[in-house]
Structure formats: structure tokens, C-alpha cells
Design goal:
Chain lengths: 267, 267
DNA sequence: GAGTGGATTTCGCAT
DNA sequence: ATGCGAAGTCCACTC
């Protein structure tokens, strides 16, 4: 027989709680793996890969159910201090301040937050099964090229994707209408010299092992002037692709696997 | 004569407001450049460099006074959707949902959030002048090497830092005890093949323009196995440095400028 | 505004 | 665990 226990209200909100009151509510929330949201005056110490100190001020602090931590100042997209998921937390009162300590195991790191005033404390469990989908990634471009190789040039035939070479993976590899080997490096945004060097390295590695001519094509929406100079001097080429159009193209056949797109056999 | 206006309470907190009530409070907050914190059920569309859709679920939404936007799900360090500072915002009611739209000018991007339920709304101005200081950055290592060149090796004499070469900037450049040119690339953490290639590129560029032998040293706390192989095959070398120790060393003389550390003249 | 490189990058994937 | 590369990366800095 089922016993109905009293259901704890989902959203707990405390306005300007005392530090002792806040301590109790936060500890409860940690036990129950509730998300904790605090707006208050605090100072922060971080020790780990680097170290940092943040002097007192009013901030927004979030501890999520997965053990991630965010400390946000009044400005900026990025948190001033944080920890990725997986931390465990300790709390205690100390000289008129409430301490929340986030501890990470590997790498060993700690973030310690000292509150001397809390304006808002809220703890809750977020119910969120909503699907997240994103378009116009590098993978979408890759699929579009495999699906419609003429994006690169007439007569291009892809043979493999994510092909392992000595120094890493080639995004797409195939042959042109003259039968020459073609290696394609894909970037979803303006490419700089790094991408050119990366492609050059792949070409070098393949030339050495295959012992024949290899064409290198950088497929991206844009290329910087200096990168183009370098590209040209290395005998490589650039093909403009529009990530959005690629993404739209791919969306029509999104049920297909990448491997279905390959129509030619290895040469 | 000064007129005392009624002071608006700093922290406004609304528990489960109606969408219409929330709309008014949010619009007020935007006008007054207050930070807006919302916990509620929403769905999100993003269009810009890429596109994304997030189906309904409960999330934490923050709009900061500088026009940055964060949408956080119940897990993870990173926001699921966001905008960096500088957005402007529009709000309106629409078919039983409250819409908050963030618009960025360059690149042109929009994030649209539709709420159909709000559990917590809070608006406030954070007072935060607290200084933030961080230690053990790549710059700290650079300073430590300039301050105490024997970190690299006995007899090493730095000559320049951030020296411009054809393909970028060399972190530190100097001569060894034999008078050979030395180029040092600094990384604050484990280095992979990219850093090796970067150093190799600098060496190549300098060799070409200087027309003489150049030694390359990668200074970092660690190097990956494959990166070490590549390093060796390219005739470069690795020097282990501890970012923390470098940082401590630097802290003792943090009032000095980098340029004060250079004791030798250009050769 | 473009271009470059760092970051307590984080994240995911493969070895 | 290590290694590697992408990311709507963001950000600071230079030209």
C-alpha cells in the first residue's frame, strides 16, 4: 500500500534571511540536491589550476544539482568564479559570515564563498526535459559536403570522413575530377592562420605516407587576409561555404547517417 | 534645496507573479537598468551565428545591467543560451506567454525567450566594487622567467618579450650561454601538438629572417606524449615550469614592470 | 572593424 | 585517465 508523504513545496524563497536561517536552508538543499540561488554580499577565494581573490561585493551565486557553481558579478557574460559539475559542497558559519565551499577532486580545486549578507535565497528543483537542438555546426557542413560534394567543386567525390592520418583526423577526404587526392579541412567561421597550418600539416603527413600529390582545400565561410596569404604560399586553396545553407541542406535528410552519404569506394 | 524622492527598495522579489505583473516589473527593470532574475518555465529560440531551439522546461534566466543574457538549465557550467553584453531587450505578451527578446547588433543575433510560468522574479542593482585579482596566468610565468632566467637554464639571458616575428609574437626571446638565439613559448598548462607547431612556426620564421641557428624551448608545466615526440622530431626542447611557483615569485615584485626585468641589450 | 592568441576555458569523443 | 579539437566559444589587445 502506497503511503503518501507530504510533498515539499517545489520553490522555496527566502527574502533577506538571517545567515543562520540561510545556512539551514542551504544545507537542506544540498542534501536534497536542490538548486540553490543566492543574491548577497560576498567575497570569494579560488585555489586550483590558478588562484584568485575577489573582494566583497554583491553577486549572484548559483549551485546546481549536478554540483556546478557560478558566481556572477553585475556585468559580463562570464562568471567571475565557478566550478564545473561534480563538486561537493561544505557549509558553515564563521565569524559572522556564512561559508559555502565547493570542492573539486580532479584537478583538486576549491572555491570558497563568504557571505555576510543575503538578500535573496531560493532553492528548488528545476523540471526540464526540453530538447535542445542546434544548427549550423561544423558537423552540419561536413554532412552537407558529403551529401552534395559539388559544394566544394564540380567532380569532387568524397571517399572518407574523419580519416585518421599521422597527425590527427582529416575532416573529409576524396578525389577531384582529375583523380587527384583532395583533403578538406572544415571550419564553421572565419579561419585564421592556425587552420591553414593545421591543413598544411595534414597534407604534409599524407603526402609523405601516400607518396603522391595531394590537394588541400579549406572550406569555411571566410578567411582572414593573412591566412589567405599563407594558404596561397603553401599551395592550398579556399572554398567559401555558408554554414546556414549547409545546415538547411542537412536538415532535410537529418535521419540519414553520415556513412550513407558516401557514394564512392576507396581508390 | 534638495528634494528627497522616495527611494525605491533595492531588492524587489515577486513570488509566482502573473505574467502580466511580471511583464510590468521586467519592463520597469529594463528602463532602470536593473538586473533581472527569473526562474520559470520557458522555451527559447536563438538565431545568429548559428540557430538553436530549446523546448519548454524550467530554467534560470538572468539579464544583467550591461545587457548580457544567460539562460541556465538545471545542469552544467555553461548557459544553454546566452548573449554577451551590449544587447537591447524587448518584451511583450503574446498568446498567454511573456516574451523577452534580446537583440545584438554585431553580429546580428536574437535570443527569444517565451515564458508561460514564472515562479520567481527578482530585480535589483548589485553594488559591487570589489577588486578581483588572479595569479598563475601565462603572463606570470613570463614575468618569472624574465625576473629569474635560470628557470629556463643556466646562462640564459632574456632580451625581449612579446617580440614581433613574421607569424606572430614570441613570448620570450634571448640568448643562451653559448650565445645562440633562444625562442621560448610559454603555456600555463599541459601542451599539445598545437603549441609545438606554433613554436616551430616561430623558429622557422626567425631562422629565415635572421639567417642563423635558433633554439626553441617550450616552457610549460607538462607536455603530452605525442607533442613531445613531435617536439623532438623538430629539434626543439621542453622545460618544465610550475605556474604557481612562478606566480609566487612574481608576486614579490609585482610593483615592477616587465621591462625592468630585462638586463641585457639586444644582440 | 578585422585579426590573433589566451582561458581556472568547457565539452565531447576517442584512445 | 590522457589527448585532441570544436565552440553561437568569450575576451583583451593590436592594427
Amino acid at each position: 500500500m502506497a503511503i503518501l508523504l507530504p510533498v515539499k513545496r517545489a520553490f522555496l524563497i527566502y527574502e533577506s534571511p538571517s545567515l543562520n536561517e540561510a545556512l539551514s536552508r542551504i544545507e537542506e538543499a544540498f542534501v536534497e540536491q536542490r538548486t540553490v540561488l543566492i543574491v548577497g554580499r560576498c567575497w570569494v577565494e579560488y585555489r586550483g589550476r590558478a588562484s584568485s581573490k575577489l573582494k566583497p561585493g554583491e553577486r549572484i551565486v548559483i549551485v546546481k544539482e549536478d554540483g556546478s557553481l557560478l558566481v556572477h558579478r553585475c556585468r559580463g557574460y562570464e562568471p567571475v568564479n565557478w566550478q564545473p559539475p561534480g563538486c561537493f559542497f561544505k557549509t558553515h558559519m564563521n565569524d559572522n559570515s556564512l561559508t559555502v565551499k565547493a570542492i573539486r577532486r580532479s584537478p583538486r580545486e576549491t572555491v570558497i564563498i563568504y557571505f555576510d549578507q543575503i538578500y535573496l535565497l531560493s532553492t528548488f528543483k528545476l523540471i526540464d526535459e526540453g530538447e535542445f537542438s542546434i544548427y549550423a555546426s561544423e558537423e552540419d557542413i561536413q554532412k552537407a559536403i558529403l551529401l552534395n560534394p559539388s559544394i566544394i567543386e564540380d567532380g569532387f567525390t568524397p571517399i572518407e570522413y574523419e580519416k585518421k592520418v599521422e597527425s590527427g583526423f582529416v575532416d573529409v577526404y576524396g578525389v577531384d575530377k582529375e583523380g587527384r587526392m583532395v583533403v578538406i579541412e572544415i571550419k564553421r567561421r572565419t579561419v585564421g592562420k592556425d587552420a591553414v597550418l593545421q591543413l598544411a600539416r595534414y597534407i604534409e603527413s599524407i603526402k609523405t605516407s601516400a607518396g603522391r600529390e595531394v590537394r588541400g582545400i579549406l572550406a569555411a565561410p571566410q578567411i582572414s587576409g593573412e591566412a589567405r596569404d599563407l594558404l596561397t604560399s603553401l599551395g592550398l586553396s579556399f572554398k567559401r561555404v555558408d554554414p546556414k545553407k549547409c545546415s538547411e541542406m542537412f536538415r532535410k535528410v537529418k535521419d540519414k547517417k553520415i556513412s550513407d552519404f558516401l557514394q564512392a569506394e576507396e581508390v
